[in-house]
Amino acid sequence: MASTSNAVASTSSSKTTDSEPTVSTSNAQPPASESVDISDIDKILAAEASTLQREEECNRVLGAFKLNPYDILGVELDADENEIHKAYRKKSLLIHPDRFHHPRGPEAFDLLKKAETDLLNEEKRKLLDKTIADARMLVLRSLGVPSDAPDTHDKIRFLRPPLRERVKAKAKEIMIDEELRRRRTVKMTMIAEGAEAQRAEKEQTERKRKTEEKAKWEDSREARVTDWRSFQKGGKKAKRPKVLG
Question: Which of 16, 44, 178, 224 is the most buried (most CB within 10 A)?
C-alpha cells in the first residue's frame, strides 16, 4: 500500500514539473563586460569622428584663398560681428594646436585668427567688400546685365555656374592682381631705399675719410713747421763769389 502511494506521488511530482512554464532568456541583460565594451566602442567612434571633423576643417582653412577672409572663416558676405565671432570661436576650437595636432595646424589657426581680425577691421572690410562689388559689376557687365540688377534677374537666376561662383572667381583675379601690384611697389620701394641707403653710406664714408685726412694733416702741422724752420735756418747754402780773370 505504501509502495502504491509513493508511486502516485512520484507520478504527480513528475507531471507538476513538466507543466511549469519555461522562463525565456531572450530579453536578459548582457553581462556587465559586454556593456562596457559597447560603451568603449562608442567612445572610439566618437573620437574618430571628432578627429576627422578637425582634420577636414584644418584642410579647408589651409585650402581657402588666402587673400579672402570670407573664404577662410567660411562666413557670408553680409555676416555681422556676432556671426563672425561665433564662426571663429567654433572653428578655432576645432583646430586649435592644443586640441588637435596637425603638421600645419598652427598655420591654419593663424590664418583663421587673421581672417577674423581683418573682417572686424572696418577699413579692411570696406576695401574687401568694394573689391567684391567691383567683381560683381564686371561679371554682370560681361553678361550684358545692368550692374544694379538683383540676383532674381532672369539672366542671373539660372546661370551655370551660378553668379556667386563667378563673382568669387572674378574677385580672386582682382585680389591677385592687387597683391602682385602691392608686392611690386614694395619691391621697388625697397630697391629705391636700398639705393638711397647705399648713397647715404657712400657719402658718410667720404665725409669720414675727409675728416680723418684733415685730422692727420692737423696732427702733422707741428712737424711740417719744424721742418720748414730748419730749412730756413740752414737748409740754404751760401753763394760763392765768382772769380774773374
Answer: 178
Do residues 38 and 81 lie in contact, with contact meaning Cβ atoms separated by under 8 Å?
A: no
DSSP notation for 26-64: TTPPPPHHHHHHHHHHHHHHHHHHHHHHHHHHHHHHHHS
The three grid cell numbers given for residue 172, joined into one nine-digit string? 580672386
Q: Distances in Å between the alpha carbon of 118 and those of 122, 126, 206?
A: 8, 10, 47
Other beta carbons within 10 Å of 188: 10
Within the chain, which residues score under 70 in pLDDT? 1-39, 41-49, 224-225, 227-229, 231-245
| Cβ-contact 145, 153 below 8 angstroms | yes
Task: Show the domains of the chain with their CATH numbers.
Answer: 44-214 (1.10.287.110)
- The reported pLDDT for the residue numbered 244 is 56
Determine contact, residues 70/94, Cβ cutoff 8 Å. no
pLDDT at 18: 47
Tell me the one-letter amino acid at 107.
E
What is the C-alpha separation between 104 and 57, in angstroms, rounded?
Answer: 12
